[in-house]
Predict the structure.
Amino acid sequence: MRPKLVVGNWKMNGSRANNASLLAGIVDGLGKGKGKAQAAVCVPAPYLQQCADTLAGSELAWGAQDVSVHASGAYTGEVAASMLTDFGCRYVIVGHSERRAYHGETDQQVAQKALAALNAGLTPIVCVGETLDQREAGQTNVVVNKQLSAVLELLDGDAATRIVVAYEPVWAIGTGKTATPAMAQEVHAELRSQLRARSLEAGEKVAILYGGSMKPDNAAELMAQADIDGGLIGGAALKAADFLAIIDAAKAAA
Ligand SMILES: O=C(CO)COP(=O)(O)O
C-alpha cells in the first residue's frame, strides 16, 4: 500500500505574518489524531526561508512551485533546483496547468524541470490534466498520457520511481467543480497503467495525487479510490482547519 500524501499548493498567496499562523496551525494539528499520512506545503519562493526556519524537525515537509531547467547562470528571475535543496525543500511542483497556460510551458520543458529536480535530490510533483474542451472531445486520456510520457521519456533507470504525479483536471481548479471519484479514478488508473508499462516498480511506488477543488467534504470519497494516493490542494490549503481535515481524510483512507 502506498502512503497517502497531501500537498498544499499556496500559489501566489501569503505574507510572513499569515504564513506564521497558518504553518503553526498545521504543525500543531498534524501531531493530533490517529493514522499516518505525509504532508507538505509548496510555497512562493520568498517564503522558503520561513519554512526552513519554522518547519525543520516537524512532520510537515515543504517545497516550491516551479524550478528552472538550468543548473545556474545568466537566467534572470529563475530559481535553480540546487537552490531549493539549499533551503531544505523536499518537493517541487512542475508543469502546473497555470504555468502551462500563462507561461507557455511545454511538455518538454516540464520534463526538463522534472529531471533538474531529480538531479538535485528533489521529488518533482508532475502535474497533468485536460481542459474542458479536451474532456468534451474525449481526449482526456490522450492528453494526460502525452504529458506524462514526455517526462518518462527523459528519465533514465529507476528515476521514474522517484516522481509524484498529480492529476488536475483544468476545469476543476479553483472552480468548485470536482471530478467525481469515479471520473478521477478512471484517469488515475490510466496513469497507473502508463507508469506500470514503464516499470512494475514505478507502477507500484509512484503516488498519484488528485487536485481540483478538493475540500474537507469531498476528500474522503476521492481518497478512497484505489489509485488516488492523496491530494494537491489549492484554496483549501490556505486555512489550517481545512487542510488538516483533508489530511485526516487521507489518514482514514490509508
Ligand atoms: O491547482 C490546484 C492545486 O495545485 C487546485 O486548486 P484548488 O484546490 O483551489 O481547486
Remarks:
- The longest strand covers residues 123-128.
- Residues 9, 96, 168, 173-174, 211-214, 232-236 surround 1,3-dihydroxyacetonephosphate (CB under 6 Å).
